[in-house]
Amino acid sequence: MGMEPSRENFGSLADVIDRVLDKGLVINADIAVSVAGVELLGIKIRAALSSFETAAKYGLEFPSGTKLSTPAWQEALTAKEYCPQCEKKVATQDLMTAGCPWCGWISAKANQLNDRIKTSI
Fold first, then answer.
1. pTM for the complete prediction?
2. How many CB atoms are located within 10 Å of the residue 95 CB?
3. Residue 96 placed within a domain
4. For residues 121 and 103, which has the higher predicted lDDT (pLDDT)?
5. Are 47 and 55 in contact, with CB atoms under 8 Å apart?
6. What distance lies between CA 46 and its chain's CA centroid?
7. What are phi and psi of 24, to 5 degrees?
8. The pLDDT value given to residue 103
């Protein structure tokens, strides 16, 4: 799902939100109020916007009480890649061994495994 920046490529709002949640967005700000060289007030702000999957991938801390043992979290921690044909996210292990469940694309490794199974039968 390559969105290369260019003037001709206009993405919809859904594409922009998908990109931000997939890659993540971090804003750091340091604000200091000083009078005559003496710092009176210092504020450090860090805001992160991402999907839970991206946050887990990069090790961001979650609020206390977050249950990380739920099936949804286990799914989020599963490594995923984009299918080269339909560009949907699929678990890497499934994509390499069984193929894409969305479009039916099959990797060379999966083809080799299928050929070995057929010859051994």
1. 0.43
2. 24
3. yes
4. 103
5. no
6. 20
7. 90, 160
8. 92
Task: With CA atoms as reference, report the closest residue to 76 among 85, 66, 86.
Answer: 66
Q: Please write the tens of the pLDDT for every residue from 42-82.
A: 888 878 787 777 777 777 777 788 787 888 778 777 888 88
CB-CB neighbours of 8 under 10 Å: 4
Domain that holds residue 62: 1-68
**How many Å apart are CA 30 and CA 19, to the nearest integer?**
26
Q: CA-to-CA distance for 92 and 81, rounded, in angstroms?
A: 5
d(CA 36, CA 63): 39
Measured CA to CA, the distance from residue 113 to residue 2 in angstroms comes to 30
Distance CA 68, CA 62 (A): 9
Total domain count, the chain = 2
Of 24, 39, 68, which marks where a domain is finished? 68
Q: Same structural domain for residues 82 and 35?
A: no
For residue 1, pLDDT over 70 is answered with no
- Identify the helix (H) or strand (E) that includes residue 26: strand 25-35
Q: How many CB atoms lie within 10 A of CB 88?
A: 15
Shared-domain flag, residues 32 and 90: no
